[in-house]
Design goal:
Keywords: ATP-binding, Membrane, Nucleotide-binding, Transmembrane, Transmembrane helix. By secondary structure, the protein is α/β, with parallel strands linked by helices. The chain contains 31 helices and 26 strands.
């Protein structure tokens, strides 16, 4: 079964089915039913492909679940579980990694430390202007400023209380002290990374180096051996000189701190400070201070969760210094310890939900947008895949730890909104490739914008909520916000034991799910009819409306004049008697209202409005044509002559700018639904689906032509009786358009096709375009040569050959040495005779009909035979191809003159 047979069925079916097809056109319900049956057949034929497509997200999710399980199993091994010893399991037996999982009913007390830069990263000072080596102990600088410089510098010197002299003069004195009490009285620091929680202080694990910050180091280093909960611990204690450096204002501190990082200076070296203090307007009546600290360690993880930074000691240092200045040197305010909240034993687990975050799942859902609408038969399948993707992903916390009902409503709402968006986007594109590129850019761009912009505003509690709601009117932002809230609840449910997202949580002012659901539902209700209108009313399309508004003050004739003026074209009225006669016939038929069993085009024009200062483009220039039932009309023309544009207007794909057409009395502009039931179309492109059989194709098109029951069955069976093509009739009072129907067919198939068309054309009117002169002469009762959007001649093949091909071609073959004699004798027949071909003794001459008779030709040939041997000769009339070439050349000459 080929697309030609389908075109036949599309025009109306068998003879007994024609009455039903003429009674009324197929209703919307009939067309929807036909589409449903066709889609079901298509899906059945593509069962394996659909199964693979549907299985892909399931396989991806299964892979994620397997990865999650493998990672969880690996994290469940001893290196990631709480360490155990002789007295049980706990932090004391654990590494810093293991300590995170230990149960802590009574967490340990840890001294408050200061974050001290490593020796190679410490800022250069006047005391030590050279870069420190790894083995050196360089000073650590603290930046100071304030309105009262004398007071600020005094407070700076008091930030670092000195260690009593007996601690370093008496051997072993440090070991005899309560080390936790001593740690609370001095400024103790470390260059180790701070912990995320304080169940284990990484600076106080055995054999670490601790720094004691002093304004003047009277000792270098010492070894501290202590007992902690029955466990012997040893530390290296080093004295580090702390240098308060004065800055004129806080801007100077900002600049020096920024340049202290590799990215802030041209030399790409670290030049870090311990901290910065701005005592502002501190006086004896009150303490007011701003403190700069290193927050880099709070962003060492992808989830940006806060690290327990070493800030409390910095605050205590300023408070203690101020009290000493105010009340005396003997006054002390100890910061004894820091302590974490109790916690149960946990298992280390990597949640892929957090790893992929909201952006990943936003992309996953939106990536199906380019697939919607490109093949309408798969839309329902795409929706099912999206739903199955969500269900198959239930192994991840974002799906597992939230209410399934909330998730179903959220994804179901967005899926329907996304389907509507695909229909809406489709009305703005005519190319699938362009639409695919644009929608992919939309998917990735909107996701990145949501992650970079919307996320920032959501997390900013001071940002007005109504502006966030306005941003969420953008569908991609609504999806991102919903997934973000689901991920947030899943994270809190796993790490903090909070309840998952339930319906009651939608009333939480910090929860945006309620707003998202309302916005997506309203957008779906609004955009669905809008997409339908844009798809079914091209004249209401925003782009068309814009063009109309630009051109509303110009009549069609004015626009044509502007085109001619802008291009410098002069209108020359060359006589086209057959075209003018056709226009006269059309006018007479319209005056008499005699349009029964007729195909009539009246002054049909199509003009595309110019853009960016370019003139309007005239596609069809006032075409008039009248055809009766049983006629086959051929449109000949060079490539680009707008033949297909004319057919697109006649089948409703493109609306004419002016003029109209009538098919069996039905107006092209107002009765298109009725016309659809009475026309068949065979376009240049293939209109078949490879997965469907010939019977399924015919059933679909038959139902679209309002054939049902026995009539449909019989029409299909009659169509299938032929080996390749349908020849049982195209339907009463109908028109069939065939655009280059035989292109690509082998000679035998072409002849079969011609026989079918000749057998059936008595029952319908057919209009075909072709580049084959042989096909036009074989099939067409009348021919029109169509150039640059208008007819240049109309008539039967013989009439056109007689009118435009008034010549004969004489071919004579002789020995090459007699070439001159042949040429001389033939040219004596008429002054208009000329030779247009000569090679190896074969010569061809053009002889005018009116000037050279057959007897003259015979006399010349006989004379040549008597003079020398004539190997062969022949005389032929002009062909349709000759007519076509001549008319095209004349049209080009006229165009050059204008």
């Amino acid at each position: 079964m080929t697309q030609k047979a389908v075109a036949d069925m599309a025009s109306g079916g068998g003879s007994e089915a024609r009455a039903a097809a003429r009674s009324r056109w197929a209703t919307f319900a009939t067309q929807a039913h036909a589409l449903l049956l066709k889609n079901l057949s298509f899906q059945r034929r593509n069962a394996r492909t659909n199964a693979a497509i549907a299985a892909f997200p399931a396989l991806v999710c299964a892979l994620l679940a397997a990865t999650q399980s493998a990672v969880d199993g690996e994290l469940g091994r001893s290196p990631f579980r709480c360490g155990c010893g002789e007295m049980g399991c706990g932090v004391r037996y654990s590494t810093p990694v293991q300590a995170l999982t230990c149960a802590e009913r009574s967490p340990a007390r840890w001294p408050a430390l200061v974050q001290v830069p490593g020796t190679e990263a410490r800022a250069l000072t006047h005391v030590h202007p050279q870069r420190c080596g790894a083995s050196e102990n360089c000073p650590a600088a603290v930046l100071l400023t304030g309105q009262n410089r004398h007071l600020a510098e005094g407070l700076g010197r008091a930030l670092f209380p000195r260690v009593p002299v007996e601690y370093y003069l008496v051997p072993g004195a440090l070991n005899s002290l309560d080390y936790s009490e001593w740690f609370s009285r001095v400024v103790l620091g470390s260059s180790t990374l701070p912990a995320r929680v304080l169940f284990m202080e990484p600076a106080l694990v055995p054999d670490e180096t601790l720094y004691v910050l002093q304004d003047l180091c009277l000792w270098n280093s010492s070894r501290l051996s202590v007992m902690s909960d029955g466990m012997p611990l040893q530390y290296d204690i080093q004295c580090v000189q702390a240098l308060p450096l004065w800055c004129d204002n806080s801007s100077v501190i900002n600049r020096r701190l920024f340049k202290g990082y590799k990215g802030g200076n041209k030399r790409r070296i670290s030049n870090e400070f311990v901290a910065g203090y701005d005592f502002i307007d501190t006086s004896m009546r009150g303490l007011q201070v701003y403190i700069w600290y290193n927050s880099t360690f709070s962003r060492d993880d992808e989830d940006d969760s806060m690290t327990v930074l070493r800030v409390p000691r910095l605050v205590n240092m300023a408070s203690t210094a101020y009290l000493k200045l105010l009340l005396g040197a003997d006054v002390e305010m100890h910061l004894e310890y820091l302590k974490e909240m109790p916690k149960p034993e946990t298992r280390m687990r990597l949640d892929l939900t957090i790893l992929f975050n909201a952006l990943f799942f936003t992309w996953i859902v939106q990536l199906l947008l380019p697939m919607h609408g490109f093949e309408n038969s798969r839309n329902a399948n795409m929706l099912a895949i999206q739903k199955r993707t969500s269900l198959a992903s239930a192994g991840l916390d974002i799906f597992r730890l939230n209410s399934y009902r909330v998730q179903f409503i959220f994804y179901f709402t967005y899926i329907n909104l996304q389907a509507v968006l695909s229909f809406l986007f489709a009305s703005f594109f005519s190319s699938v490739k362009t639409a695919s590129v644009i929608t992919c850019i939309y998917v990735f761009g909107s996701g990145l914008l949501g992650d970079a912009l919307l996320l920032y505003f959501i997390q900013d509690s001071t940002f007005p909520k109504h502006w966030i709601i306005i941003m969420e009117l953008f569908p991609a932002f609504s999806l991102y916000r919903g997934i973000y809230d689901l991920a947030g609840y899943a994270y809190e449910g796993r790490n903090m034991g909070k309840a998952r997202m339930q319906w009651v949580d939608l009333t939480d002012p910090l929860n945006g799910m309620k707003d998202v659901l309302v916005l997506m539902s309203v957008e779906w209700i609004i955009l669905l009819p809008l997409a339908f209108i844009l798809d079914h009313r091209p004249a209401w399309h925003p782009l068309s409306l814009f063009r109309f508004l630009l051109a509303k003050n110009l009549s069609h004739s004015q626009r044509i004049n502007e085109v001619n003026s802008a291009s410098g074209r002069v209108s020359i009225d060359f006589a086209k008697p057959d075209v003018l006669l056709e226009c006269k016939v059309v006018k007479q038929l319209l005056e008499k209202m005699d349009m029964r069993s007729m195909f009539i085009c009246h002054n049909l024009k199509k003009v595309y409005a110019g853009k960016n200062g370019n003139p309007d483009k005239i596609v069809v220039r006032g075409l008039s044509l009248a055809l009766r039932k049983g006629q086959c009309f051929g449109m000949l023309g060079p490539s680009g002559s707008r033949k297909t544009s004319f057919i697109n207007m006649m089948i409703g794909l493109v609306m004419p700018t002016s003029g109209t057409a009538y098919i069996d009395g039905m107006n092209l502009k107002t009765d298109m639904n009725e016309i659809y039931a009475n026309i068949g179309v065979c376009p240049q492109h293939d209109l078949l689906w490879e997965s469907l059989t010939g019977r399924e194709h015919l059933l679909f098109y038959g139902q679209m032509k309002n054939l049902t029951g026995i009539s449909l069955k019989k029409a299909v069976e009659e169509s299938l009786k032929s080996v390749n093509l349908f020849h049982s009739g195209f339907g009463d009072n109908s028109v069939v358009y065939m655009d280059e129907l035989s292109t690509g067919l082998d000679p035998m198939s072409r002849i079969d096709l011609w026989n079918v068309i000749k057998q059936a054309k008595k029952d319908y009117t057919i209009i075909l375009t072709t580049h084959s002169m042989e096909e036009a002469e074989e099939l067409c009762d009348r021919i029109g040569i169509f150039i640059d959007g208008e007819f240049h001649c109309i008539g039967t093949p013989n009439e056109l050959k007689a009118r435009y091909g008034g010549t004969r071609t004489l071919t004579i073959m002789t020995d090459p040495k007699h070439k001159g004699e042949v040429d001389k004798l033939v040219n004596q027949l008429s002054p208009s005779t000329y030779r247009f071909y000569s090679m190896s003794g074969t010569q061809k001459f053009v002889l005018p009909h009116r000037e050279v008779g057959l007897d003259d030709v015979f006399r010349v040939v006989e004379t040549l035979r008597r003079a020398f041997p004539v190997l062969g000769w022949g005389l032929t009339d002009a062909t349709l191809e000759d007519v076509f070439i001549r008319v095209v050349k004349e049209a080009q000459a006229i165009d050059d003159m204008s």
